[in-house]
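Quick start: load a record and inspect it. Here is O-methyltransferase C-terminal domain-containing protein:
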Amino acid sequence: MSARDHVDSLLAIIKEAAHSALDEYEKYGTPTPTLDSLDSHPLDIADDKLKLKKIVSKLEGACDQLCTILAPPSHTIMNRSQDFGWACLRVAVRQKFADELAKHPDGLHVDALSKKVGVHPMKLASILRVLAAKHCFREVSPDTFANNRLSINLISDHSVSALVDFITEEGQRSALALSDYVVDPQFGQSLSMSETVFQYRNRDEGLQGLTFYQWLQLSVMMKAMVSMNSVIGSLTALHVYSWSSLQSVCDVGSGMGGFSRSLLKMCPSIHVTQFDLPETLALAKQHWKDDFAGRVTFVEGDFFDKIPVQNCDLYYLRNILHNWTDEKALIILKSVREAMGPHSRTLVHDHVLRHMFPTSGSSTDGLDMAPKPMLPNYGAGQIRLYHQDLTMMMSYNTRERTTTEMINIGKEAGLRVLKVFDLAEMCLVEFEVAEK
Ligand SMILES: C[S@@+](CC[C@H](N)C(=O)[O-])C[C@H]1O[C@@H](n2cnc3c(N)ncnc32)[C@H](O)[C@@H]1O
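Running the structure step on this input writes:
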């Protein structure tokens, strides 16, 4: 295929995907918002954005591939090495730019904004222009900026704002240390959870031995996790799996119970047991108070020891296995297997690694595959998945798994796979007991 053929095929994919995205917005009887709009569209807050997410993977992947084919390579490499957007987002969130601009929908000059946010007007303008060039905030007249569809997500009470605060600190610091870490004779070759990039860059601070997980203030991580789950559309799982036929669900490593809460709302006859460590459940209970009284039970325990919640219809594990090594993930699944009755099911809800090439037939590991000439894994259309994989490595010395790897660990634990559901960024793998 020539470059011209590639470009023509990519343009056709982009046109078709862009029109499908417009259709998704317009299904709600409301036009697709422009970038200047400050109103939320019903689709922005819908639980089920799976169709749009799949379309956007295609669109982002195809647009990036098209520009990469046509731009001079040095131009592309330079753009990718010099991306300060994350640092500017961090300042915007910390100094509450969007909160102040929300009081001035027609815009505020940097001289006036500077007095409110405590950043020198010249520096403020440079930071805002980096962001506005990528459509976050808009410059309405010289040096006068206003909020737009993206920047309103940075207002402090928006869940995405907490996520930006979290991601732009720890992740970026570790990423900077990565090139030294990988060649360090001790840390670079280690797969121990106590010798990650995180411990490497804090090695003079007496943190050795403390895992990233232990170090994090539980509440900070939990707040960020709630936002993360909403951004990546975790609640889509409610709409692709048949929950209404279930009566009892054990949420294994339930955290703050974000998923259980939505499940209980959607299915009035379900009873949920939240199983987690005592310290996490103590925090979770503060959030739950008496909500759903009689339909939710809290059980403290350690999934490396035993899950004392027997014979539930379903054991649900969201964001659990990926921060443990294969050896530890196997112990967790064996505990789940022990708790399961002959008709119980287990649902693993995790990110899933997609290779750059098809592994069999027309699909990679049972997942959707991008149309040619796109990379089968959607390339830049799934970049967050590869960043997530790197985050797992830098924080825990673990990684995201392919569906085949998940299925194999399940098999070793005595579970047989029933179905894989592709949720665009994450997936659900449903298991039953292998031998009843
Ligand atoms: C990454 S969070 C996921 C929380 C939740 N499933 C979600 O998706 O929002 C991992 C959870 O596993 C729990 N956890 C960690 N070690 C555990 C253990 N040994 N036994 C039970 N739960 C544990 C943590 O307390 C935390 O709530």
